[in-house]
Amino acid sequence: IYTGVLYDALGLATLDAAARRLAGSSLLVFSGLWGAVRVGDRIPSYRCSMGVKLPGLGALGAYWRAPMAEVLPAAAGDGLVLDLRSAAYATAWKPKGEVAGRTATVRVLQSKIVGGVEKRSVVSHFNKATKGRMVRDLLTAGRTPDSPAELVEALGDLGYVVEAEAPAKAGKAWAIDVVVKEL
Protein backbone atom coordinates (compact mmCIF):
# COMPACT_ATOMS: atom_id res chain seq x y z
CA ILE A 1 0.00 0.00 0.00
CA TYR A 2 2.67 2.49 1.01
CA THR A 3 5.08 3.91 -1.51
CA GLY A 4 7.65 6.64 -1.59
CA VAL A 5 11.28 7.18 -0.80
CA LEU A 6 11.37 5.49 2.62
CA TYR A 7 9.40 2.44 1.45
CA ASP A 8 11.49 2.13 -1.72
CA ALA A 9 14.68 2.12 0.38
CA LEU A 10 13.16 -0.33 2.87
CA GLY A 11 12.13 -2.71 0.07
CA LEU A 12 9.81 -4.89 2.15
CA ALA A 13 8.93 -7.17 -0.76
CA THR A 14 12.61 -7.98 -1.36
CA LEU A 15 13.46 -8.93 2.23
CA ASP A 16 14.22 -12.55 3.02
CA ALA A 17 11.62 -14.52 4.99
CA ALA A 18 13.22 -13.94 8.41
CA ALA A 19 13.53 -10.18 7.86
CA ARG A 20 9.92 -10.02 6.58
CA ARG A 21 8.69 -11.83 9.70
CA LEU A 22 10.64 -9.42 11.89
CA ALA A 23 9.21 -6.44 9.96
CA GLY A 24 5.69 -7.82 10.30
CA SER A 25 5.98 -8.16 14.05
CA SER A 26 7.90 -5.00 14.82
CA LEU A 27 7.06 -2.20 12.37
CA LEU A 28 4.12 0.19 12.66
CA VAL A 29 3.16 2.71 10.02
CA PHE A 30 1.27 5.80 11.12
CA SER A 31 -1.69 6.59 8.90
CA GLY A 32 -3.95 9.62 8.67
CA LEU A 33 -6.88 7.32 7.86
CA TRP A 34 -6.22 4.25 10.02
CA GLY A 35 -4.16 5.58 12.94
CA ALA A 36 -1.40 2.99 12.98
CA VAL A 37 -1.12 -0.26 11.04
CA ARG A 38 1.30 -3.15 10.87
CA VAL A 39 3.11 -3.57 7.57
CA GLY A 40 1.21 -6.81 6.92
CA ASP A 41 -2.26 -5.43 7.65
CA ARG A 42 -4.59 -5.72 4.69
CA ILE A 43 -6.00 -2.26 4.01
CA PRO A 44 -7.28 -0.66 0.81
CA SER A 45 -5.29 1.89 -1.14
CA TYR A 46 -6.03 5.41 0.05
CA ARG A 47 -4.70 8.96 0.13
CA CYS A 48 -5.08 10.73 3.46
CA SER A 49 -2.04 12.38 4.97
CA MET A 50 -1.80 13.03 8.70
CA GLY A 51 -1.38 16.74 7.90
CA VAL A 52 -4.94 16.98 6.53
CA LYS A 53 -7.71 18.88 8.31
CA LEU A 54 -11.10 17.32 7.68
CA PRO A 55 -14.45 19.08 8.10
CA GLY A 56 -16.03 17.99 11.37
CA LEU A 57 -12.82 16.29 12.60
CA GLY A 58 -10.15 18.96 12.28
CA ALA A 59 -6.45 18.08 12.21
CA LEU A 60 -5.92 14.34 12.03
CA GLY A 61 -2.92 14.40 14.38
CA ALA A 62 -5.15 15.82 17.11
CA TYR A 63 -7.96 13.41 16.19
CA TRP A 64 -5.71 10.37 16.67
CA ARG A 65 -3.95 11.60 19.82
CA ALA A 66 -6.27 10.04 22.46
CA PRO A 67 -6.78 6.66 20.73
CA MET A 68 -3.03 6.36 20.08
CA ALA A 69 -2.17 7.22 23.69
CA GLU A 70 -4.47 4.41 24.75
CA VAL A 71 -3.15 1.60 22.54
CA LEU A 72 0.42 2.40 21.51
CA PRO A 73 2.15 1.89 24.88
CA ALA A 74 0.98 -1.74 24.82
CA ALA A 75 1.86 -2.08 21.11
CA ALA A 76 5.35 -0.78 21.91
CA GLY A 77 5.96 -3.80 24.12
CA ASP A 78 8.96 -3.59 26.41
CA GLY A 79 11.77 -2.98 23.94
CA LEU A 80 13.11 -0.14 21.87
CA VAL A 81 10.73 2.27 20.15
CA LEU A 82 12.51 3.59 17.06
CA ASP A 83 10.55 6.68 16.05
CA LEU A 84 11.15 7.71 12.44
CA ARG A 85 8.01 9.81 11.97
CA SER A 86 7.91 13.20 10.31
CA ALA A 87 6.58 16.19 12.27
CA ALA A 88 3.00 15.85 10.99
CA TYR A 89 2.79 12.21 12.10
CA ALA A 90 4.53 12.88 15.42
CA THR A 91 1.55 15.03 16.45
CA ALA A 92 -0.60 11.89 16.70
CA TRP A 93 1.36 10.32 19.57
CA LYS A 94 4.03 11.39 21.98
CA PRO A 95 5.65 8.62 24.02
CA LYS A 96 5.44 9.33 27.73
CA GLY A 97 7.10 8.07 30.88
CA GLU A 98 8.81 4.69 30.70
CA VAL A 99 8.05 4.26 26.98
CA ALA A 100 9.67 7.64 26.22
CA GLY A 101 12.81 6.52 28.05
CA ARG A 102 13.27 3.66 25.58
CA THR A 103 12.33 5.69 22.52
CA ALA A 104 14.90 6.95 20.02
CA THR A 105 14.09 9.61 17.45
CA VAL A 106 16.44 9.81 14.49
CA ARG A 107 17.61 12.86 12.58
CA VAL A 108 19.69 12.49 9.43
CA LEU A 109 22.43 15.06 8.89
CA GLN A 110 24.55 15.53 5.80
CA SER A 111 28.19 16.36 6.43
CA LYS A 112 30.09 18.43 3.84
CA ILE A 113 33.50 20.00 3.98
CA VAL A 114 33.24 23.65 2.93
CA GLY A 115 36.41 25.72 2.96
CA GLY A 116 38.15 23.08 5.06
CA VAL A 117 35.41 23.18 7.72
CA GLU A 118 32.76 20.53 8.29
CA LYS A 119 29.23 21.83 7.80
CA ARG A 120 26.21 19.78 8.73
CA SER A 121 22.68 20.26 7.51
CA VAL A 122 19.41 18.45 8.03
CA VAL A 123 18.37 16.59 4.91
CA SER A 124 14.74 16.24 3.94
CA HIS A 125 13.97 14.01 0.95
CA PHE A 126 17.07 11.86 1.49
CA ASN A 127 16.28 11.69 5.21
CA LYS A 128 13.54 9.22 4.30
CA ALA A 129 15.83 7.13 2.08
CA THR A 130 18.44 6.90 4.83
CA LYS A 131 15.82 5.89 7.39
CA GLY A 132 14.47 3.22 5.02
CA ARG A 133 17.97 1.81 4.42
CA MET A 134 18.70 1.91 8.15
CA VAL A 135 15.58 -0.12 9.02
CA ARG A 136 16.29 -2.54 6.16
CA ASP A 137 19.85 -3.03 7.42
CA LEU A 138 18.63 -3.70 10.97
CA LEU A 139 16.02 -6.19 9.71
CA THR A 140 18.36 -8.07 7.35
CA ALA A 141 21.02 -8.28 10.05
CA GLY A 142 18.41 -9.63 12.47
CA ARG A 143 19.34 -6.87 14.91
CA THR A 144 16.66 -6.15 17.51
CA PRO A 145 18.14 -3.64 19.94
CA ASP A 146 16.27 -3.38 23.23
CA SER A 147 17.32 0.16 24.10
CA PRO A 148 18.46 3.38 22.44
CA ALA A 149 22.04 2.66 23.59
CA GLU A 150 21.89 -0.77 21.90
CA LEU A 151 20.50 0.90 18.75
CA VAL A 152 23.50 3.23 18.63
CA GLU A 153 25.80 0.22 18.93
CA ALA A 154 23.90 -1.79 16.28
CA LEU A 155 23.88 1.08 13.78
CA GLY A 156 27.60 1.63 14.35
CA ASP A 157 28.23 -2.08 13.74
CA LEU A 158 26.27 -1.75 10.47
CA GLY A 159 28.54 1.06 9.30
CA TYR A 160 26.47 4.11 10.19
CA VAL A 161 28.03 7.20 11.76
CA VAL A 162 25.87 7.79 14.80
CA GLU A 163 25.96 10.43 17.49
CA ALA A 164 23.76 10.27 20.54
CA GLU A 165 23.54 11.29 24.13
CA ALA A 166 21.30 9.88 26.77
CA PRO A 167 18.63 12.41 27.74
CA ALA A 168 19.47 14.52 30.76
CA LYS A 169 16.11 13.70 32.30
CA ALA A 170 14.44 10.31 32.85
CA GLY A 171 11.32 9.71 30.78
CA LYS A 172 12.62 11.63 27.75
CA ALA A 173 13.30 10.18 24.32
CA TRP A 174 16.83 9.86 22.99
CA ALA A 175 17.73 12.07 20.04
CA ILE A 176 20.04 10.21 17.68
CA ASP A 177 21.83 11.78 14.74
CA VAL A 178 22.87 9.66 11.77
CA VAL A 179 25.54 11.53 9.82
CA VAL A 180 25.90 10.84 6.11
CA LYS A 181 28.41 12.21 3.61
CA GLU A 182 26.64 11.05 0.49
CA LEU A 183 22.95 10.90 -0.09
Detailed description of the structure:
The chain has helices spanning 5-10, 17-26, 60-75, 87-90, 97-101, 125-140, 148-157, and strands at 28-31, 35-38, 53-54, 58-59, 81-83, 103-114, 117-122, 161-165, 174-180. The chain is of the alpha/beta class and 183 residues long. A hairpin with a 2-residue loop joins strand 6 and strand 7 (117-122). The longest helix is centred in the middle third of the chain and has 16 residues, at 60-75. The chain is globular, with a radius of gyration of 17 Å.
Key features?
7 helices, two-stranded antiparallel ribbon, 183 residues, alpha/beta, 5-stranded mixed sheet, 37% helix, single chain, 9 strands
Topology overview:
Elements: H1 5-10, H2 17-26, E1 28-31, E2 35-38, E3 53-54, E4 58-59, H3 60-75, E5 81-83, H4 87-90, H5 97-101, E6 103-114, E7 117-122, H6 125-140, H7 148-157, E8 161-165, E9 174-180
Parallel strand pairs: 5-6, 6-9
Antiparallel strand pairs: 1-2, 3-4, 6-7, 8-9
Number of domains: 1
Can you count the helices?
Answer: 7
- H-E order: HHEEEEHEHHEEHHEE
Tell me how many strands there are: 9
Distance between the termini: 25 Å
Low-confidence stretches: none
- Averaged pLDDT, please? 93
**What is the helix fraction of residues, given as a range?**
25-40%
**Percentage of residues in DSSP E strands:** 15-25%
Question: What is the makeup of the main sheet?
Answer: 5 strands, mixed
What is this entry, summarized?
The chain is of the alpha/beta class and 183 residues long.
